[in-house]
Amino acid sequence: MVGNASRAAIIGDRRITGLSADVIAEIVAEVGPLWHARDRVRLASRPRKRAVGAGARRQLVFVDRLLAALVHLRHCWFGVGRSTVARAIGEVRSLLAEQGCTVAAGVRLRTLTEVVDHLGHTGGTGIVDGTEIRVRRPTVGRKDRNKFISGKSKQNAVKTMVVTDGDGCVLFGGPAGPRSRADITHTRQSGLVELLEAGPTVEILEDAG
Fold it and tell me: pLDDT confidence of 132, banded at 50, 70, 90?
């Protein structure tokens, strides 16, 4: 378990998570009930010898799981094994992704279709680029292991496609894939090209990559 003092220190120092305490509180209030609901469904969906809630206590409560997901690329101060942190990140990351990007009061974009419609409605310009995230080297024997090697940084990485508006506000972050995939391939596989052909007139800028 993470102590109250450690938890408060993580939440109170914006350099650790990149988010203010108020934003973290909003995420907890919004995503926490979704996590608890999914957890109850998961526990009730399998044969059990014990009642739901019996057995060993969790090492990380939801707030700590959220913090682990936010800071795992920088630090790991939770005093638990890597597998516990990995499970926490896996549970929370999908919930965070489903919440989308809030771009204005009452306006939240969750899909590329919504992004294109938003830009078409506002007349804004979109900017698309691939962003690398360094990862551990895949284990020996893993299929396509070399696809994670970045030719640019000479490190193992995954790449995700990010869409922002002209002011740099993030509108969408796509799923991560092996670094060896070219930006234009990532864009095509996301379905953005088809959306631009069939949707409203929108200006999207992308570099030569």
Answer: confident
